[in-house]
Amino acid sequence: MGAASTASTTSVDVAEAVKAVRVSSRRRQPLDAAIVAMGRTGFHQMSRQAPADEAQVSVGLFCKYFGSKEDILLAAIIDILEKFRDQLPPAMDLAGGDPVMRLIAGFRQDTGIVDENCDAVVLTYRRAAPLMPTAANAARSSKSRPPPRCGPPSRPGSRPDS
Q1: Is 152 exposed, middle or buried (0-12, 13-18, 19+ CB in 10 A)?
Q2: How many angstroms separate the CA atoms of 107 and 116, rounded?
C-alpha cells in the first residue's frame, strides 16, 4: 500500500501544481491587458469593457478575476513587488560577497525588472497613493522576505558610516 499511496499522492501533487499554473496563466492575461488598457486610457477613464477587449475575453470573465479597477491596480502592485522579491536576492547572491558587486548586480536586476514591466511600473507609480493603506496591509500580510543586504550585517553598537 505504501508505494501505491505515494504514487497517488505524487499524481495529486502534480495535478494540483498543473492546475495552479493554469489558473495563474489565465489570470495573467487579463491583468496584462488591464495594465495596457489603463496605460492607454488612464485609471479613471478606463471602462470595464476596455481591458476585456484587450484580453479578448468577456466582461463577465474579466470581472471573475478582478472585481474593480482597484483590484487590478493592487494585483499589478503585488505582481511587481513579487518580481522584485523573487529576482533581486538571487541576482545579488550570484555577485558574491563584495558589497559593490552586490549593489551593481541588484541595480542591474532592478532596472531589468522595471524595463520588462514598464507599463505596470508606471501605472503603479502613478496610482499607488490612493491604495497605500491597502497595499501596505497586503505587503505586511504577505510572506515576503526582508530586503536584501549589500554587505555583512552590522554589529550591535557600531555606526553604519564607520
Answers
A1: exposed
A2: 14
- Tell me what the pLDDT averaged over the chain comes to: 79
Could you read off the pLDDT of 59-96 as tens digits, one per residue?
Answer: 998 888 888 888 988 898 899 999 999 999 999 999 99
Which CATH fold would you assign to the domain 8-66? Arc Repressor Mutant, subunit A (1.10.10)
**Alpha helix stretches (DSSP H) within 42-98:** 49-55, 59-65, 69-94
Q: Could you tell me the residue ranges of all domains in the chain?
A: 8-66, 68-145
Whether 80 and 131 have beta carbons less than 8 Å apart is answered as no
Of 49, 45, 38, the C-alpha closest to 125 is: 38
Kind and range of the H or E run holding 40: helix 2-41
CA proximity to 114, closest of 147, 92, 134, 87: 87
Give the whole-angstrom CA distance, residue 65 versus residue 34. Answer: 11
- d(CA 124, CA 130) in angstroms, rounded, equals 11
CA distance 54 to 74: 19
